[in-house]
Write a structure and sequence with these properties.
The complex is a heterodimer of chains A (381) and B (343). Chain A is of the alpha+beta class. Chain A has helices at 7-23, 36-51, 70-82, 91-104, 107-119, 232-245, 252-268, 276-302, 310-333, 348-355, 365-376; strands at 124-127, 143-147, 150-157, 168-174, 184-190, 196-201, 210-221, 225-226. In chain A, the strands form two sheets. In chain A, strands 1-4-5-8 form a four-stranded mixed beta sheet. Chain B is 54% helix and 10% strand. Classes of the chains: A alpha+beta (381), B alpha+beta (343).
Chain lengths: 381, 343
């Protein structure tokens, strides 16, 4: 065990820091879920990132990455959040679909889809859930039928993040006549394809962060299927592992929030309830513990291990710590907690509202607890 | 940066696990509780024979000269069986301190001897009666005395395997050993209490899981009900996020700086909170059986309670973390930072 960075890792951190200091926009961008302008401003930022080859540092160079390891990825993320750089509008692509494509895609698929994903030219939405299939994803009813070299897609997807403004979506489709986990395929479709209708759904904060998608005889080439026909469930579980486990929520996000919370506490300590200091300390402990846990997982994966059910423990931990942290911030703010802050200042309230979604998305925490109980602890179904 | 355990470390842990699994079973606990004893000579002899008491002793005192991260794994296994004997406090804290002050002392030459330690942070001294010698503190100086050179006042204790004493003593009847590093003793003890907490917690969950698989209600094993599953899953989450903190604390204790102390405190808080959470979840899953003497979960609850309050209360450790948080830089690039990085 060696918990110190190598000189190469320190040099890498310095390189990332210098580049971000020179390039991160001074004024915060409008949120990518708020308006088309906000979304496109974030796309421009993704393109700027690509000019420094920072689009997705862990991907192989030939697919638009830098070929770096997971520890370097963590260092990149730490510097990214530390610099206050814009949120990644393409997170569904780069953190969810990307790693899955690298594992299951053909060389041609990787060449086609990964570079424009890393450069922000093509921004991805996820299309997992359906009105009747949320946590019970094996219940999806949308269909795919192979006709010649094309699939014909039909169905109704919902709670699709980014789909209102994004270019592409990936979703699960069922070969007609199949049941449950069998017969599902993971297929990509352009959101402007004939037969696709996207309706915005406003989130709790008024942003158009979700969409429902209707697919009516949408034709896509069979090339757009990831893995074999019927292998969709297996692939999708791997994607979910990345989502819950490692990539979706890097620790730096919470460490920045915990450090800001400590500042907020110091600024308000004369007037705030003294009991809240323990909660501020707790937020720091939680963010630190999460970082240590992810470093440990990264070390294990680099030594050849595969991500396992710990992905479910991560998802519960980060989502619950996020709510606790932001509730503490609102408690410190007291009667100012309900005020919408002026633009350019830290928005604890909006981050709190966002944190409330944590135990729901990426598989509800109830489902994660079932997974832990059944797959880690061996309790009966 | 490599946050994985070495093969040698895993081997030591495995040795301890196998030894304890064979020699410290529910049958052993029951017999000891009936006899009202807190030490089983045969088990202690086999622990000594396996070399577990030598791990943290320096080579100059006949030990193996290994590190805290090696001993922490053994402490974790001791927690998993609620080990009655004072392996952790004696071999992990007191004997290394004595070795640093008097490496040639006769007590260290006797492999079966245990050493007790009276530390300012604790009002009571554990296992002072059965120790070959007791380390005592006065004005930062260390003294050594045998139990018959001091007055031991036994305290009633809820953990059936802990023996706590108030120690009254006179420096004239003890051997002065000079200035000692009481802070290191505290840090080691807190770290190993945390490691034991991980073991206590995992055992409480495992006992709950075993019971929930067997016990039938409404025609199904109770472990198939979500409410039962979620108690145990939540406890497991607490364990999973205490473990890397304990491992990091063990790896960093040698730095002796504000970050290392805060991490040890963090480890002690969360590992013993996990132990408490797991024990209470396990009692709940066991139902009325869980509230009875017959089911072993109470041993783990009581040991967690004891270790939570000894070697620094939660308030003491929270204050050390607050000190790090409010006096040092924070943020995502500071996870592994050191005090002198900012000098």
């Amino acid at each position: 065990m060696d918990l110190t960075y190598t000189p190469e890792q320190q040099a890498f951190r310095a390189e990332v820091r210098a580049w971000l200091e020179a390039h991160v926009p001074e004024a915060p961008l409008e949120h990518y879920d708020a308006t088309r302008e906000g979304f496109e401003a974030h796309r421009e930022w993704e393109k700027t990132l690509k000019t420094g080859d920072w689009g997705m540092v862990t991907w192989p160079k030939e697919y638009g990455g830098r070929g770096l390891d997971l520890i370097q990825w963590l260092i990149f993320e730490e510097e990214y959040y530390r610099a206050g750089a814009p949120g990644r509008v393409n997170q569904n692509g780069i953190f969810l679909l990307g790693p899955t494509l690298i594992e299951f895609g053909t060389h041609e698929q990787k060449q086609r889809f990964l570079p424009p994903m890393a450069s922000g030219e093509e921004i991805w939405a996820q299309a997992w859930s359906e009105p009747q299939a949320g946590s019970d994803l094996a219940g999806v009813r949308s269909t795919c039928v192979l006709e010649g070299d094309d699939y014909v897609l039909n169905g109704h997807k919902i709670w699709s993040s980014r789909a209102v403004f994004a270019d592409w979506a990936f979703g699960l489709f069922r070969t007609p006549g199949t049941e449950r986990h069998k017969g599902m395929s993971l297929i990509f479709f352009p959101l402007n394809a004939p037969g696709v209708t996207v309706n915005a759904i406003k989130k709790i904060n008024g942003h158009v962060g979700f969409a429902e998608i209707f697919l009516e005889n949408v034709r896509v080439p069979a090339f757009n299927r990831l893995g074999d026909e019927g292998q969709g469930w297996h692939i999708c579980m791997a994607t979910a592992g990345f989502e819950r486990g490692l990539m979706l929520r890097s620790p730096a996000r919470y460490q920045v929030a915990a450090a800001k919370l400590a500042q907020l506490w110091r600024a308000n300590k004369e007037t705030a309830d003294p009991i809240l200091e323990a909660d501020v300390v707790r937020a720091h402990m939680n963010a630190d513990a999460y970082a240590l846990s992810i470093y440990q997982t990264a070390s294990r994966l680099m030594a050849g291990a595969k991500i396992g059910p710990e992905a479910s423990t991560n998802k519960i931990f980060w989502s619950e710590m996020d709510i606790d942290l932001h509730q503490t911030a609102l408690s410190i703010l007291g009667s100012e907690a309900e005020l919408i802050p002026p633009p350019g200042t830290h928005d604890w309230l909006d981050d709190y509202i966002f944190s409330l979604a944590g135990p729901i998305y990426a598989g509800s925490n109830e489902i994660q607890r079932n997974i832990i109980a059944e797959r880690m602890l061996g309790l009966p179904r | 940066m490599d946050f994985t355990l070495s093969d040698e470390q895993l081997m030591f842990a495995e040795t301890a696990r196998t030894l304890f699994a064979d020699s410290c079973t529910p049958d052993h606990w029951r017999k000891m509780m009936e006899a009202g004893v807190a030490r089983e000579d045969a088990r202690w002899a086999s622990i000594v024979e396996t070399g577990l008491t030598l791990v943290l002793l320096p080579e100059s005192a006949g030990g193996l000269g290994l590190a805290e991260s090696d001993f922490a794994l053994i402490a974790q296994e001791a927690g998993y069986v609620a080990l009655p004997e004072p392996l952790v406090e004696s071999a992990g804290v007191a004997a290394p301190m004595l070795a640093s002050l008097a490496p040639d002392h006769a007590v260290l030459a006797d492999p079966l001897a245990t050493v007790a330690i009276a530390h300012q942070v604790n009002p009571f001294v554990a296992n002072a009666d059965s120790a070959a010698a007791i380390l005592l503190e006065k004005d930062g100086e260390a003294y050594l005395a045998t139990p018959d050179q001091v007055t031991l006042v036994a305290q009633p204790v809820i953990d059936p395997f802990r023996r706590l004493f108030k120690v009254e003593w006179d420096a004239a009847n003890a051997t002065p050993l000079g200035k000692a590093d009481w802070d290191l003793a505290l840090d080691r003890a807190a770290l190993f209490a945390a490691a034991q907490g991980l073991g206590l917690a995992q055992r409480a969950v495992d006992l709950g899981v075993d019971y929930a698989k067997e016990r039938q209600q409404f025609g199904k094993p109770i472990g198939s009900y979500q409410a039962v599953k979620h108690h145990l899953a939540s406890a497991q989450v607490a364990i999973e996020f205490a473990r890397p903190v304990v491992m990091a604390a063990a790896a960093e204790i040698g730095h002796r700086d504000i970050q290392a102390r805060a991490r040890i405190s963090h480890a002690k808080l969360v590992a013993l909170e996990a132990a408490d959470k797991a024990a209470r979840a396990s009692i709940q899953v066991h139902g009325a059986m869980g509230y009875s003497w017959e089911v072993d979960v109470h041993l783990f609850l009581k040991r967690a309670l004891a270790l939570t309050q000894s070697w620094g209360t939660p308030a003491f450790h929270r204050a050390r973390i607050a000190q790090r948080l409010f006096t040092q830089p924070n943020g995502p690039d500071q996870t592994f930072a050191r005090e002198n990085d900012h000098a």
